[in-house]
Design brief:
- Helix content is 48%, strand content 15%.
- By secondary structure, it is an alpha/beta fold.
- The strands form two sheets. A seven-stranded parallel β-sheet has the order 3-2-1-4-6-7-9, with helices on both faces. The protein has a two-stranded parallel ribbon with strand order 5-8.
- Helix 1 crosses helix 7, helix 3 runs parallel beside helix 4 and helix 4 packs parallel to helix 5.
- Pfam families: adh_short.
Length: 280
């Protein structure tokens, strides 16, 4: 069941490019108001200028809760309230775990996970005031499937997915929906200039790191999914009367998710004869 007749006042984090910019553009095409954020004020200024009367925005560091509090209040004031929030700010830190510095680990978790938590905490009072709403947390296939060489990105996105499911159940009695969105490979800068690799040179992983860099270079610009079609699919979740807790996006997504869940179920089942012998 759909609810496409609702006017939308949408806060989107991370609109500097890629999926965030695509979602904002598709939202404008629907006649929705969009308050966009980026760490860069110049990016925000361009976003507002290009978006016309439906656009507003502000610079925000999602890792700083005072910044997300401020931006949530600004968004509610600019749009007359908030009823849709899309937590899109994030990036991919790639490389075997031992190649990642402690600072890189901290930053990846701070942006991808803590940033999502901060934004949710900041916007929820405004959604309660509205009386309904929807939060779309952009996770990843790496929030469902574990990939070697993507340890921290996977950890951050699994956490976003788990947080989103639990939060959805907490907020359901209050008329607020939460969905974790797991996009597949989008033709954006994800595998190119937006990618960050581990800084530590660890001898046992040199061949693996070299192979990863080659794969990322080969995939950059050749990903199978159009970010604008993906954006439209994501926005359609907000049209649903009964949206899912989890939504996969992409031609490469569904078979991979189903296979991963089947493998996980089989893994748990293999230990069942031993693991359930614990009764009093």
């Amino acid at each position: 069941m759909m609810k496409t007749d609702l006017p939308r006042r949408c806060l989107i984090t991370g609109v500097s490019g890629g999926l965030g910019a695509a979602m904002a553009e598709r939202a404008f095409a629907r006649g929705w108001q969009v308050f966009g954020t980026s760490r860069s004020q110049s990016v925000v200024d361009k976003f507002v200028a290009d978006g016309g009367e439906l656009a507003s925005g502000g610079a925000c560091d999602v890792t700083d809760p005072t910044s997300t509090d401020r931006i949530a209040s600004q968004a509610a004031k600019a749009m007359g309230g908030i009823d849709l929030v899309i937590n899109n700010a994030g990036y991919c830190l790639a490389g075997p775990f031992e190649t990642l510095t402690p600072e890189q680990v901290q930053d990846e978790i701070s942006v991808n996970l803590i940033g999502t938590l901060n934004t949710c905490r900041s916007v929820l009072p405004h959604l309660h005031e509205t009386g309904f709403g929807h939060i779309l947390n952009i996770s990843s296939l790496s929030g469902v499937i574990s990939f070697p060489g993507m340890t921290l990105y996977t950890a951050s996105k699994f956490a976003v997915t788990g947080f989103s499911e639990a939060l959805a159940k907490e907020l359901a009695p209050h008329g607020i929906h939460v969905t974790a969105v797991a996009p597949g490979g989008l033709r954006t800068r994800f595998a190119g200039e937006s990618l960050v690799m581990g800084k530590r040179d660890v001898a046992p992983y040199r061949n693996m790191v070299s192979a990863m860099k080659e794969r990322f270079a080969a995939s950059d610009g050749n990903q199978p999914n159009d970010p604008y079609k993906a954006a439209e699919a994501i926005l359609s979740i907000a049209d649903m009367e009964e949206p899912p807790f989890n939504a996969a996006i992409g031609v490469d997504a569904f078979d991979r998710v189903e296979n991963a869940l089947e493998e996980r179920q089989a893994d748990f089942a293999s230990f069942r004869p031993y693991g359930e012998n614990t009764g009093i």
